[in-house]
Design brief:
The chain crosses the membrane at residues 160-182. Residues 136-145 have a biased composition (Pro residues). One of its GO terms (molecular function) is metal ion binding. It is built from four helices and eight strands. The chain is an alpha/beta fold. The protein has two domains: 1-26 and 150-185; 29-130, Immunoglobulin-like, CATH 2.60.40.420. It has a five-stranded mixed β-sheet. Strands 1-3-6 form a three-stranded mixed β-sheet, with no helix packed on it. The longest helix is centred in the last third of the chain and has 34 residues, at 151-184. Mean pLDDT is 78; it is low at 133-154. The structure holds copper (II) ion.
């Protein structure tokens, strides 16, 4: 019996190691424009200032396919909104997932005529990930209207669930071990 419990304690520590590893490789998904999506009439500069982006994170551009698109461009093209040069990547699925794989400045525009000039443009600085959810400077945006999935919130909840589980399992195993130990002696 005691051997089994020691095995369980070992499993508990293995669980800790696995969970902390998951914590380190997690990536966050950010929906551009949050609930508003990728569309005209929204301040994407303001949106881009709300989060700290790290390598491994993913940007999701949601829009009606054909009405917009997502171009990753150079800084010059971002500033001029002239896409005759400086296009790095093009997406047009309506649900574009852009992985931020490098620590650098990323620049995005919509290349439908006049949309870039109209404000469908933003730049972000992606930093080498410390993946620390506590470093997000501002609280999450207004209450979600419909099943919004804000990456920041998901990661926070994941973290909370993980630590709660750890606490429950930890107390449970150690208490069991202690009780059995007392009865045996
Ligand atoms: Cu557009």
């Amino acid at each position: 019996m005691k051997i089994t419990l020691h095995l369980m304690n070992n499993l508990f520590f293995i669980l800790i190691i696995i969970l902390s590893t998951i914590n380190q490789i997690k990536s966050e998904e950010y929906t551009v424009g949050d609930d508003y999506g990728w569309n005209t009439g929204f301040d994407y500069f303001e949106w881009s200032q709300k989060y700290n982006f790290s390598v491994g994170d993913i940007l999701v551009f949601n829009y009606v396919q054909g009405q917009h698109n997502t171009y990753e461009v150079t800084e010059d093209t971002y500033r001029s909104c002239n896409s005759s040069t400086g296009i790095l990547q093009m997406y047009d699925s309506g649900n574009d997932k852009v992985s931020l794989t490098e620590a650098k400045k990323y620049w995005f525009i919509c290349n439908i005529p006049d949309h870039c000039r109209g404000g469908m443009k933003f730049g972000i600085e992606v930093k080498q990930g410390s993946s620390n959810p506590g470093s997000t400077p501002q609280p999450p945006p207004p209450p979600p209207t419909q099943g919004s999935n804000n990456g920041y919130k998901i990661v926070q909840i994941n973290g909370m669930v993980a630590w709660t589980l750890l606490a429950i399992f930890g107390i449970w195993f150690f208490e069991l071990d202690f009780l059995i130990y007392c009865k045996i002696i």
